[in-house]
Amino acid sequence: MIKDLINPTQFNVLVSKLGDILVKALDKPLGYAINWGRIWSLWPVHLETACCSVEFGAASGPRYDVERFGIIEAFGSLRQCDLIVVQGTVTRKMAPRLRMVYDQMPEPKYVIAMGACAITGGLYVDSYNVLPGIDGIIPVDVYVPGCPPRPETLIQGTMLLQEKIKVSKIR
Amino acid sequence: MADLEDRISESQKMGMQILKESDDDRLMTLSVGPQHPGSGHFRFIVKLDGDYIVHCDPDPGYVHRGEEKMTEYRNFIQNIPHLERPVIHDSTNITYSYSLAVEELTGIEVPRRGQFIRAIASELNRQVYTLYWLAIYGIFLGHSTMFMWPTGDRELFIDLLEALTGARVTHAFNIPGGVRNDVPNGFKDRCLRQITYYEKRLKEYEDIFYNNPLVRQRTEGVGILTKEDAIRLGVTGSVLRASGVPYDIRKAEPYDVYNEIDFKVQYMKTADSFARAYVPFLDMRESCHILRQLLDKMPEAGEVRAKLQANPRGPPGEAYRRVESGRGALGYYIISDGTPKPYRVKISVGSFRNMLALPHLLVGAKMGDMPVIYWALNYWPVEADR
Amino acid sequence: MSSKTDQKDNSNNNYNIINNDSKTSTAETSATQSPPDSRQLGDIVSKSSSPSSPPPVKTTTTLRTKDSEPPAFEKGIAGEISANFGQMVQIIFIKPLRIKIAVEPPNIVKVATFLRDNLGFDHAESVAGTDYPKDNQIEVIYHLGSYLRDDLAGHVLAIATRTNRDDARLPTLINVYKSVEYHERETFEMLGVYFEGHPRNERFLLPEDWADIPPLRKEFRIKGR
Prior knowledge:
The complex is a heterotrimer. By secondary structure, chain A is mostly helical.
């Protein structure tokens, strides 16, 4: 009987069945652990696009401290970041650079569109040099409205992103 | 698919056009780009010979939103929220200059109490701006305490401004004719308490930052801009005053109530980056004195704005008014042709004028001194691009 | 602390505390102003009160003249310019602290050099170009200011030149005032005015792939309006 089991085809089936059981047992806790790690260490790329960067700077200050959520400001290299917060207006000159920055980030990456100008063009929707919203270039996860959004709104947007990451499958 | 790849590669080539320059000598071309912790939303291309910069070429325009064109399609009052976005955290000063120019064109007169409130908001905003600038200067030098302390103190001033105007940063408070609303109850006492606390705090800033031996070593003697060069290049604001020229628009051409206020123009003669970092600090201290005098002299009651008209218009003419903002002289040149919409608005900002000093100072400096020189020029990229 | 507060001591071995108490040097504008009487125009003038207050403070600059007589000091400056150039310059208006003159393009460098050397306007604050399609002209106006002379502290002199809209060329003032370098470049890209002699007539603020007409011309319409 055991000889029957250990011939090549049967062995493959046995291993795959064992693998299924293992994945089913570990998928949820492992996924939970990995997602937990990702949620509490979202590092944003230092890309100050326009005037909303002032409120992002204020959000990193002592009063609305985003570092307690794991978001560190003034980060050096973008190859180690997983969050890009597009702060404000994206002009036509800036758009290819934004796409390049997004492409250079490693997976998994998330995008927050901060401010009315990043969502739809905002106050400058009819300007000759402004993109009407960034979701034409990069896929956006969370939209944070406001002009500029208060730091508490930005933190609420980050918490929404955290909810989204919690229920996502690890890739 | 090949077509798409062609288009992507074309756009990548556009962005990386500097790499096409031939480096046939030992120089290395470096793009301190629009995504950089040390440059903000501004790019400049430097050529390096080892560690020394031999050539610098600024490339602004990444936040150019076409303000001057867009003002021609809106009337004078509708332009106010637009025009405060270039420098969002100093927004009272940029709309102050605009309001002065429009008042000259249309003939609106501002009541006295309104003038005082405008000046108070302008001084508070100057503090807010300079604290943000100081915070970023601290983080450029790696002094993260100097990022946290000003950002925290700034919130107290923003609380005052929020009580006064209703918004944290984009106030839309100045209109041609005065201010929108009156001060709330107890504002004067809150303000005085805040200034008293803040003056003690300024001494602490001096202790940890300006007397810090590392900061001194990094900034002293770096990027010397002589007085003749400063005048020839036409720089303005704290950069000019750090090179020994005591020029301040509030003294040279007093607008509103500044001729009744007794204050001194702060300037230094050493003209290096340390002076350019220290003059805004001295300005902040002087601004506290100005605020006390303004709060003291403000009339108790009165109108705060002229009667609000829907579409103010004036006879055809032109006006050029200037205001001393956190970065220097902010001038508006407005041409009106008799309709409620302006014909041409030209904004002369301090950052654009100071940008000329950047290639002049960086050539010959080391690459490590670049953040020190660059941010000491009090340059805000969004304002320079308008 | 013997050193003045505005001069940092270079021998800084023991971390000289910057003197907090005494203030930096004063910079009151000199007393050689034009007499205040010629400036008290308009209603919102706050008279400088007591004679014991130190230097004479300037009155509020209300720039709407109630009487038709232009102020004396500015008239003196304008008179000096006219005396030197005669028909070449045309005085457009003289207001308190603001003078505007108009010059033809071939003469502008000469007039600007005279203003810099003899009259003391040592820097250019801004360069603004305006499109007048009705006259088929583009007007470029330079605002000049003075940093060193105290009696010219708040004055701004504006020089205007006009050129044809279809073939807009102007001589550059970069050799007279170095501060116009980036302003002229911006005027080139926004209005299409070519400055002869300027080292770089290139696009500055606009994107690299800009293929439209210069944006500040009046026929360039913003979308939707």
